[in-house]
C-alpha cells in the first residue's frame, strides 16, 4: 500500500493514547 | 597462533564496537538523537488488547507499543511496533538531512522468541526518500530482504548513492515471514553522510 | 601462542567484566542503586525547546533531559543532561557514605555523534566532597581532564585518599571541548570504599 491516511485517528487514540514526540527548532543537545 | 596480548586486543576491539551501538555508525533515525516518527504517516497499530494498565485496581486502558519504539534502542522481546497484516509502512524524520548509505533492521533472535519462530519479522521491504512529509511517493532508495535465518541485526547498503540528501525516509514493509495477523518492527536505523 | 580454550577464557572474562557495568566496580551515584541528584544544587538545564510532546495532536510540553540522566546508565546519543555554556555543576547524594576513590565520566564516542564531533563533552572538571547538602565549598577530591581523544569511558583515581567519608559529592565542570552553547553530561560515577 502507498503511504496513506492518518494512523492515529482520535477514535483509536482514545483506546491507546500515544505520546508523540516531534523535534521542532533543531536537534536536541548531544 | 596468536599471543594472549593479541587475543586481548581482538576482544577489546570487538567489545568497543559492540558498545558503539553494535555498529559504530551514527543512526540518524534514533529518537534520542533527534529522529522522530511522523505519526500521521504510518500504518495503523495492531491492537492486541492484551497489556491492560490499571491504577488502584481500576483498569484504565490497553497499552500497545507505539511506532516510536522502532527508533528506540530497546529490542527486548515485545518492544516492537506491530501493524496488522504483512504490509505496512512508517515514515521517519531523521535528525538531519543526509545522503542515506545503509539501513539496519533488527529483530529478536529466534532463541529469544517464546514460540521459537520469528514469523512476525519483516521479510521484503523497501526504503524511500521523501522530499517533504507530504510527498506521497518518494524516491526508491533500495529494496531488500530481511533474512530470518540470518543475524538478528542486518545491514543493507543502498545499491546506488542517491543524487540528493533526504531528511525524511519511508520504510515500507512488503511481506513478513508468515505470521498471519501482524508484523513486528523492533528497530530500524538509517546511516549515511550528513549534508 | 595461546590455545582455543585460553582464547575462550579471555573472551568470557572480557564479557563478564563488560556485563558488570563495564567496570566491575560499585557505582555509589547510580540512581537505581540509591543515588540521587540534589536538584536545588545544580546548574540550570539548557532548554532547547526542540522536543515537543503532544497527545491527540495537542501540544503538551517541551521535553529536556533532567540532571537525573547523569546517574542513569543509558548513554545513547541525546540521553545526556545539558547546561548552558562550558561551566556548570551537579551535586549528587550517593547511596551511602564512602571514601571516594575513583570517578568515571562517560560521553558518547565520536563515531556515534551525528556531527562527528564531541565538542559538547566536558574537558576540565573537579570533584568536591561535601559534608552536607548546604555546604557551599566542599573538600577538593581531585581535578581532572576528560580527554576527547580517549576512550568513551574514562576513570579518574583521586590523587590522595580523603581523610573522611562523604555521601555528597559535587561535580564541577570547568570547561568543555568547544561547544559554544552547552555542555552535555552523559554519565558520572563514583567508586570507593563504603564507610
What is the topological layout?
The complex is a heterotrimer, with 1 copy of chain A (30 residues) and 2 copies of chain B (195 residues).
Chain A: H1 10-15, E1 19-23
Chain B: H1 4-19, E1 36-42, E2 51-55, E3 58-63, E4 81-84, E5 88-106, E6 124-130, E7 139-145, E8 153-157, E9 166-173, E10 182-185, E11 187-194
Task: Describe the protein's architecture and organization.
The complex is a heterotrimer, with 1 copy of chain A (30 residues) and 2 copies of chain B (195 residues). Chain A has 30 residues and is α+β, with helices and mostly antiparallel strands. Helices cover 20% and strands 17% of the residues of chain A. Chain A has 1 helix and 1 strand. Chain A has one helix spanning 10-15; one strand spanning 19-23. In chain B, 8% of the residues lie in helices and 41% in strands. In chain B, a hairpin with an 8-residue loop joins strand 6 (124-130) and strand 7. Chain B is globular. Classes of the chains: A alpha+beta (30), B mainly beta (195). The interface between A and C is medium-sized, with 16 and 25 residues. Strand 1 (19-23) of chain A pairs antiparallel with strand 2 of chain C, so a sheet runs across the interface.
